Fold these 2 entries.
Entry 1:
Amino acid sequence: MSGQGLGGIKEYVFDPASPEFYDEASLAAEERRVFEVCHGCRLCAGLCPSFDILFDRIDSKDISAAELSGEDLHAVMDACYYCKLCYTKCPYTPPHEFRLDFPHLALRHKAVQFKKRGSNFSGRLLADPAGMTRKSRPLAPLANAVNRSKPARKLMSALLGIHPEAPLPPVASRSFTSRFPKLAKPSQPRERVVLFTTCLVDGNYPGLGEALVAFLAACGVEVLLPSGQECCGFPSFDTGDIESSAAKARKNVALLYPYAKQGLPIVAPVSSCAMALATEYPLLVAGEEAKTVAAATRDLFDYLAALKARGLWPTAEPSPLGEVAYHLPCHLKQMGVGFKGRDLLRDIPGTTVKLLDACSGHDGTYGIRTGTYEASMKVGRKLFNKVKESEGLVATECPLSALQIGHATGRQAVHPVVLLARAYGIEVSAND
Ligand code: SF4
Ligand code: SF4
Ligand code: SF4
């Protein structure tokens, strides 16, 4: 089945509606076929724990992929945290006849496991971060204090499977959606754009949403916010709960389609959420509406760069930002739209941008689950060292990577939109 994609890979091997999708024998046969190709290719050696486990299990036992046990298959697939980095290496993705799609194969594996075992209390909570944040909001200061308390975190670890040291995003006392009506709009808009808020910005980082709306207003762009948005559904993917992801996707598609049909662009301040709309929704929701929403979804900085090229840009003289260490989120590399956020910052006189090309290891719930936290910190070590060696500001387009970077290095990473707003003298509000 095909998804639209923001760029990069254009066709995915993932069809939950097909009769074999949940068939264990068919899945195991496909895993052994793919692993044999990977073992011959080895381009992804050292890329992530999945490939380390795969090559180690085959090499140490001196066997072929066909001889891997069911436990071996599970160990490889379970270690995938869906960063999609292997797409940037793989010469065998469709339309190549090998039709390799390693990340979606891992998702299918998790979906089959989920179907067999169902979910537990911790799984259900982790799959619904928006719901958790919504429930905590009336007691936001208390929730944030609990998240910082060592004894409380030990209890959470036992009850919820969240590692006691894993950083958790702050709960904001007012959501972005509730603040939005009071935000300034351009008096004579020259263009309109639809905002898919993302649950992270809505419940945890509303200040980032405000900075984006203010910056777009300074460009002469009015932001439209369809009400009733759901989380994109990615966290349910993590647990293999395809049906819950699809239910959220259907709701968001129904909400966004009327705008997409008018030709309005859709942007999201978190690149992985934009990826969900642009690449996963056509795989989860049948029909033209999901494809139309996917096609309308733009990478935020690709959209901003296009505004700038058309002269829709703040007129103020920007202030220099000095040195900026710019982390590239893995999902962005897969989009195939270049690194436009980096380029926009680099255009500001008196600003030097250095790319930090390494994974933060956060990737959804991988960075917080008790069983994967240590591995996630290990994955992120290269990035953390680069951040520690850097001077000046640290930027990342991914708020979860920012959280991970802050936790590991003590340096606060800022979203590039916030830096753009600051450079152009646009007031950025507090996040609470
Ligand atoms: S998606 Fe990321 S974690 Fe999964 S196999 Fe590919 S590189 Fe590894
Ligand atoms: S995913 Fe593709 S590039 Fe990576 S090891 Fe397998 S065949 Fe090679
Ligand atoms: S990918 Fe975006 S919308 Fe989905 S859970 Fe994460 S922050 Fe929320």
Entry 2:
Amino acid sequence: MNYHNVLRIRNYLKQQILPRLQGFPVNININKKAIIDMTFQKLLLQSPASFIDLGGVWGVNGAYTFYTLDHYTISQAYLVDTNLNDSVKKQQEQYPQLQLISGNFGNADIIRRLQQVDAIFLFDILLHQVSPDWDEILEMYAPLTTCFVIYNQQFMASETTVRLLDLGKEEYFKNVPFSQDLPLYRTLFEKMYEMNPEHQRIWRDIHNVWQWGITDTDLRTKMQALGFTEKYYKNCGQFGKLTNFQNHAFIFKKS
Ligand SMILES: C[S@@+](CC[C@H](N)C(=O)[O-])C[C@H]1O[C@@H](n2cnc3c(N)ncnc32)[C@H](O)[C@@H]1O
């Protein structure tokens, strides 16, 4: 077994098995839990506090929203996603301070419905953001928050951020965790400039597919320009089999 496989198994045990042994729900990633805890225990000392979970639904049914509501005193929370589902809606009934918002969180109309909060979670979503792009999303949300709590698959194979679709079909599929046989990806390149009826935008610009390879340098430069200081960073290891992507966790606090 080579060094990288050993690291992958070690990360899997730490991130997936250990939390279960400690009694955490199956869908909670221990590194995302850690940055939530650090934010509310060490960086934001006021209570009650407030937060927005952007794109907190797919695969986890709002697990980070509900974890935070269960473990901290929260006066106002928002979960914003284009794909709210019945599980999330059912759980929301127990939390009157949680507002579910259905829609694209890049829309100015959605942003106008949100009040100032202490923290915004962006977990596995920055690399999906186009029109507005990932850095424009950060700009739009910066006035609304004290902390950005970010967990993202960061690109290691370039000095600067790349739009993955611009790499061409072959390189694109070497750099995303999905096969080109899947329905969403099968005709992505052929339909690139056709309208996607669900999202009312061209296929090239839908958030459901992988869009960006964001570098740490570009993310840090953006956050600094927006007046945020990096308070925490962790390299959480390679993302699955993708040698060019690593999971990186960050907390940035308004300076
Ligand atoms: C990869 S999943 C991440 C889920 C969760 N945050 C986690 O850490 O496991 C991306 C989620 O964000 C939502 N999403 C991504 N971009 C969005 C946008 N611009 N507006 C609304 N929802 C978005 C998707 O619908 C999906 O539920």
